[in-house]
Design a protein that fits this description.
Length: about 130
């Protein structure tokens, strides 16, 4: 009985799974374009910040943090959500943790992350 139920659930989740998401990790700076519905109109709004956590699994999500007028703003997005139009990977940083919750207590230069190059490596010159 449970095997049958798991197959049905997996089929339903596979149907709503997104394939257009870039490969990003905690520490990366991304821009999430969110669809906002106001009355009968729909528009896109960008939410740009640092990914501080990412969960895996069938109902995976990620948390993006940004500073807005001196206050920290965090937003949790489910990965397979229809509200997300697209995600742009802007910058990658080298971090040593999977969850960057310590950034909540840091301000200004203390909250900087070390950038890492994600471009194709240059061929060695001979």
């Amino acid at each position: 009985m449970t095997v049958m139920t798991n197959l049905i659930i997996e089929k339903l989740l596979a149907r709503s799974k997104r394939t257009d998401m870039p490969n990003f990790a905690p520490g990366d700076t991304i821009r999430v374009h969110v669809k906002i519905k106001e009355g009968d109109k729909e528009r896109l709004q960008a939410f740009e910040g640092v990914v501080i956590s990412r969960s895996r699994g069938p109902q995976a999500s990620f948390t993006v943090r940004k500073m807005s007028f001196g206050h920290g703003v965090e937003r949790i997005f489910p990965i397979n959500c229809k509200v997300i139009d697209k995600v742009d990977l802007l910058r990658s940083s080298k971090v040593r943790r999977a969850k960057l919750y310590y950034l909540r207590g840091l301000r200004g230069k203390a909250a900087r992350l070390r950038d890492v190059e994600t471009e194709k490596q240059q061929p060695a010159r001979s």
